[in-house]
Task: structure prediction
Amino acid sequence: MIRLTVLAATLVLAACGGASEDLAIAEETTKTAAPVAPTQSLAADGKPAAGFYRADDEDGATVIEELRADGTFVFTDPDGILIVEGTYVQNSPELLCFTASAEDAVEDCWNDSIDENGVWRSVNQETGIRSVITRIDPPKAD
Result:
């Protein structure tokens, strides 16, 4: 955001003409400004979205989900066998969208909520599949 603000100020100064000294100051500020930390998205439980989850759907299927801080995900079965990987966006604590790494993949979004009993429920927007989500510790490496 700092870079964007400084860039906008630089463009305004350049448009005014004859502001080469101000332009040099603005360019130097751009070079020395501290990088802005990315905003950490939150999951339905109010904790950072990045982490490990167990998703149990209504048909009894279980998926272990790893959401990484860099916006990538890996889904495995309970035995650690890869199901799918790709990128995700936690648009809000109530909306999580995945896009598989396959070339023809489309975004797959889920509506998340915590019910009155504290159970985290997730519903696929397209298919209506319902899952119960549990935040878990990272699986132990073999």
Observations:
- The beta strands are 51-57, 62-67, 72-76, 82-92, 95-100, 108-114, 120-124, 130-136.
- Residues 1-38 have pLDDT under 50 and may be disordered.
- The longest helix spans residues 2-16.
